[in-house]
Amino acid sequence: MSEHITTVAGVAVDTRHWIGGERVASAGTFTDVSPIDGGVLGEIARGSGPEAAAAVAAAKAAFPAWAATPRAERARLLHAIADGVERRLEELAVVETADNGALLRSHRRGVMPRVAHNFRFFADWLLRLEHEDFDTRGHTNHVSWDPAGPCVLITPWNAPLMLATWKVAPALAAGDTVVLKPAEWSPLTASLLADIAAEAGLPAGVLNVVQGYGSEIGDALTSHPDVRRISFTGSVPTARRIASSAAANLTPLSLELGGKSPLLVFADADLDLAVDLAVEQYDNAGQVCLAATRILVEETVAEEFTRRFTERASCLRQGDPRDEATDIGPNIHPRQLEKIDGFVRRALADGARAVIGGHRGEGQYYAPTLLTDVAQDSEIVQEEVFGPVLTLQTFADEDEAVRLADDTRFGLAATVATGDAERAERVAARLVAGTVWVNCFFVRDLRAPFGGSRHSGVGREGGAWSFDFYCDLKNTVTAPKGWKDHG
């Protein structure tokens, strides 16, 4: 077997870049390690400026023909990619679990089926994408969605393939070509996606995948003058660097930057439901951008809520994510574990109390944690931890609940638990958030806009909003008369 092929859970994965329809090696590599047991998964091609330039050049060269490809053919190819994902669903699931530590059962039943759905959804949406013509004093206005050009898509490690295809699928459907840069902590399924796309018949250069460490390759991609769109999911500091890099070329950006979302539990809520919603925030070891990590409970039910929460959370099983019975797996990387532990240690030193957890486990595991006695202006309340760490605060009335909920620099999501429909409508209208869930959590429909307010991001994607971003919208205005006969 080639030195560039690594075998992960019995699946062969090429560790080189995918550029212009070919595998391309780099002079250097970086080591990809599994968070489950610390085992080395492979030595990954470590790209930098030359690989970035080659990938953008390949995307630029492929763009005219891909942009001119009829919608029906683009849609057919996206469905063919979805077919390939479904055929290799088990391989994708086991590789991604090994690479990022998320639950194998979740990958099998939810995440990888969603990957295929991403391609099918945007393929189908493309075929019905239209805007009704309208009249202005007898002139006809016709709006069209023109492909924009090469796109750079930079994706995170917490749901690598699902979040990558959430960007790749609409970009390809729109007629754009793509350079995908996966997170260095979880690069493997992006390589498998390149194989699947090639097998489906996607033309060379339409999808390119380059790996590398942070700014070593990222700056070269985001500052490239031939890039027409940049979509990024990750941290606020990295987003600032990307925005600065893209500014010289005025490259349009879509940024999803995480949050510090609240869960508001009112006294009239179904407390068992509210507890279930709160415990669900430990999903993926707390590594979910949408997680409601700030639990705000009406003071009259706070004691009972905390008792039920503690009982429910104590039943969670933490361990090997490949085990069907496991509820919480490891955190992604030693650096991330140190970050999580640092947040908790500083909070405890500042007077917070750990109702449960508050400490590291063995290896890459952090105990599910709930902290109380935290101040609103404290670091643990204001900053994103991105681990299995929740805080609990109380409120006296609706006004205080909303004030506490909105009192951070973020605004990605919010969850409301209440038995009063009018209150739900009232509170949702006052919350600063891109998505508000009422008596539910993590219900996502690709037809809906997704994104955040404040420091949680810029722009919206999903449904028509994705095509608005990945296309150049054009309005053609035609006069009713005045045609000349040039015959």
SSE order and pairing:
Blueprint: E1 5-8, E2 11-14, E3 17-19, E4 22-24, E5 29-33, E6 40-45, H1 49-68, H2 71-87, H3 89-100, H4 104-127, E7 134-136, E8 139-147, E9 150-154, H5 160-173, E10 177-181, H6 188-200, E11 207-209, H7 215-222, E12 229-233, H8 236-247, E13 253-256, E14 262-265, H9 271-279, E15 294-298, H10 302-313, H11 334-349, E16 353-356, E17 369-372, H12 379-382, E18 389-395, H13 398-406, E19 413-417, H14 421-430, E20 435-438, E21 457-458, H15 463-470, E22 471-478
Parallel strand pairs: 9-10, 9-12, 10-11, 12-13, 14-15, 14-19, 15-18, 17-18, 19-20
Antiparallel strand pairs: 1-2, 3-4, 5-6, 7-8, 8-22, 13-21, 16-17
Helix pairs in contact: 1-7, 2-4, 2-6, 3-4, 4-5, 9-10
Please characterize this protein's 3D structure.
There is one protein chain. The protein is of the alpha/beta class and 487 residues long. It has helices spanning 49-68, 71-87, 89-100, 104-127, 160-173, 188-200, 215-222, 236-247, 271-279, 302-313, 334-349, 379-382, 398-406, 421-430, 463-470; strands at 5-8, 11-14, 17-19, 22-24, 29-33, 40-45, 134-136, 139-147, 150-154, 177-181, 207-209, 229-233, 253-256, 262-265, 294-298, 353-356, 369-372, 389-395, 413-417, 435-438, 457-458, 471-478. Helix 5 links the parallel strand 9 and strand 10 (177-181). The chain starts with a strand and ends in a 9-residue tail after the last strand. The relative contact order is 0.13. The mean pLDDT is 96.
